[in-house]
Every structure is written in C-alpha cells, then in structure tokens.
Amino acid sequence: DKSGASLILNNIAFIYNNQGLIEKALEYNATALKMQEEAGDKLAIAGTLNNMGGIYQAQNQNDKAAEYFNRAYKIQHDLNDEPGIAYALNNIGLIYNKQKQFEKALDYLTRSLEIKRKLNDKHGIAYGLNNIGAIYEAMKNTGKAFELYQNSLLIEDEIGDKQGMVTSLNNLGGIYFHRKNFKEAQAYCFRALAISKELGFPENIRNVSKRLYEIYKAQNNYRMALEMNELNKVMTDSINNNNTQKASFQKQMQYEFDKRETVVKAEQNKKDTLAAEELKQQKLQRNYFITGLIMIFGLSLMALNAYKQKQKANIMLMTQITEIEKRKHIIEEKQKEILDSIHYAKRIQTALLTTEKYIDRNFSRLK
Question: How far is the C-alpha of 135 from the C-alpha of 341, rounded, in Å?
C-alpha cells in the first residue's frame, strides 16, 4: 500500500522537521514522494511537494521553496483541486512577500483568497486577509492594512479561531501604535496578551509583550514597560530553551545516526572489498579463458593454413605428375611412330634391293 506508506513517511518527516532534523525530514519526504509517483497518486504528490516547500521556506531557501510550491500548484491545477490550488497560491505569495516583490505577492494571495471565498473557507479567508494586510502595511498603506486586519478579526471571532485572533489583534495594535493612538494600541494588545496567555504559546506572548513594551515606553510608563520587557525576556528564554533542547536532541540523534552510519559504512566497505576481490578473480579467470581461446584460435588458424598449404602443394604435385605422364605418353607415341616408320622403310628397302647371292649367281652365269 504505497499511498498509505507514503502518508506514514510524511508524518515521520513532520516529526523530524519539528526536531530540527531538516535533512532527515527531507529524506523521508523524498522517499514518500517516490512512492506516490510509483502509485500515481497525484494529489498526495502535491501535498508532499507543499510540505517540502514549507521546509525550505522555513530555512529561508526561498528559491528552492518556490520551485516545490510551483510544482505542487501545477499538479493541483491539472486536477482542478481548488483547496490545494488556494493553498499553493498562498504559499507562493508568501515567498514573493519575503523577497519584497509585493505586487506579485498580492496577485497570488488575492487569487488564493478568491478561491477560499468561493469555498466558504472562513479560516482560510481570515488567514488570507491577514497575509494581504501585512503586505499593504509593508507598502505603507496602513489604511488598507487596518481594514483587512479588522475583517480578519471579525471572522476569527465568529469561528473561534483564537490563534488567528492574537495575530489580528497584535497587527491592529501595531497600526494604532504607528498612528500614535496609544490607548487603542494598548487595548488591542492587552486583549491579544490575554488570549496568548490562555493558549500558552510562548511565541505569541513574546510578540505581544514586545509590542506592549514599545507602547508603554512611548508613553513614558517605565514601570509597565519594564514589566512587559521582563515578560518578553522570560518568553524569549523559554523559546531559546526549547530551541536548545531541540538542538541537544538533534545532536544526540545525529550522534546515534553517525554511529549507526559508521557501522553500516564499515560493513559496506567490507562487502565492497569482498566484492572487488571476487570481481578481480572473475576478471582474471575471464582473461585466462579469453587468452586460452585466442591461443586455440591461433593454433587452429595455423593448422588450417598448413593444411591448406599442403593441399595446395599436393594439387600442384599432382598437376605436375599428370603433365609429365601426358608428355611421356606423347613421347612414347612419337617414338612408336618413328620406329614403325623405320621398320616400314626397311621392309621396302629389303624388298627392292637384289640379294648378294642372286647377283653372284647371275654374274657367274654371264661369265
């Protein structure tokens, strides 16, 4: 069940990310992503890409984060996954905001907000309004920012989103502070502080107490300013202690991981050495075999060549013998013809010539 396994891997990555083990988190996310791709689960792929983008964003690797968010957006757009599209657009908009490309950030965040309104996602709407308000505030358009923060607060109050209310109240307190309306600024921030203490989130208490310190200091109310400064310091120390604990835990985890990696590496090196030796032997055997084959092939070629030469010589010898036999036969024929001619001539001569006795007898008679 690759989809189920990838979900578990993503959860493990989430834990590693919270512990500050960024590389381990990305490793598990990457493994989950591979499984999802093998399973063809595009919706899950987009979710994992968004998770990985969020990790890079937290590490201020904005270009890398934007790459993953854009990949997720493309998949969600192809799937017509409107909640996913809104989420990806929001993430890309926040990246542009970090890069101070405010116009692009507004474009993406506004498109995200439109989808959230279409889906009637009130939590998402309130969150989007706050994000857009922060951009307008960075652009010095505090009037528009104030309006957006107020609208966000109304929705958060309606749905009971206290975490969101702290952010909106603190943002509104900041607008009033910059307008030097310290009374209203103090009222909004006090309300934000009360909710933060109720929730018990050190980051929220730290942020609000810092704002109240600035407000009281601007009013020359040093006693309250000192109190808020002390509260801010305690919350900062608490956060740092948590970070220290995370770092300590991370160090211990890294030590155990490195130790395990050393053992694994040693075993792997041993396996690699044995494999290399075996491969060396195999190469030697192969080379011997190939050399033997080459020698046999060479000897076979030599034998074949010798055989061909011998055949060629035999053919030539037989040809010569045949030629001699032919010539001998011809000579014998000629010789026979000559002898026959001689014998024939002799017989004629013998027949024509008078014998000595015949001559003597006739000579005696004549005498």
Answer: 140
Cβ pair 216, 189 in contact under 8 A: no
Within the chain, where are the H helices?
2-18, 22-39, 42-58, 62-79, 82-98, 102-118, 122-138, 142-159, 162-178, 182-199, 202-218, 222-352, 356-366
Q: Return contacts of 246-255, CB within 8 angstroms, 24+ apart.
A: 246/19, 246/20, 247/20, 249/19, 249/20, 250/19, 250/20, 250/21, 253/19, 253/21, 253/24, 254/21
Greatest CA separation for the chain: 205
pLDDT at residue number 255: 42
Which is nearest to 184 in space by CA: 146, 151, 155? 146
Whether 14 and 51 have beta carbons less than 8 Å apart is answered as: yes
Lowest pLDDT segment from 212-216, 273-277, 338-342: 338-342
The confidence score (pLDDT) of residue 251 equals 43
Can you tell me the mean pLDDT for 192-201?
91
Helix axis angle, 162-178 to 182-199, nearest 10°: 160
Contacts of 22-26 with CB under 8 Å at 24 or more apart are 22/55, 22/59, 24/253, 24/257, 25/55, 26/52, 26/55
Q: Using N-to-C axis directions, what is the helix angle for 42-58 and 62-79, rounded to 10°?
A: 160
The pTM of the full predicted model, rounded to 2 decimals, is 0.60
Pseudo-torsion of CA 329, 332, 337, 339, nearest 10°?
A: -170
- In the predicted model, what is the mean pLDDT of residues 13-31? 89
* Burial class, 166, CB count within 10 angstroms (exposed 0-12 / middle 13-18 / buried 19+): buried
For all residues of the chain together, what is the average pLDDT?
84
Give Cα 130 distance to the centre of its chain. Answer: 37
**C-beta atoms surrounding 3 within 10 Å:** 15
- For residue 289, what are its two tokens? 């075999």
DSSP state letters, 195-244: HHHHHT-HHHHHHHHHHHHHHHHHTT-HHHHHHHHHHHHHHHHHHHHHHH
Cβ pair 118, 85 in contact under 8 A? no
**How high is the pLDDT of residue 250?**
47
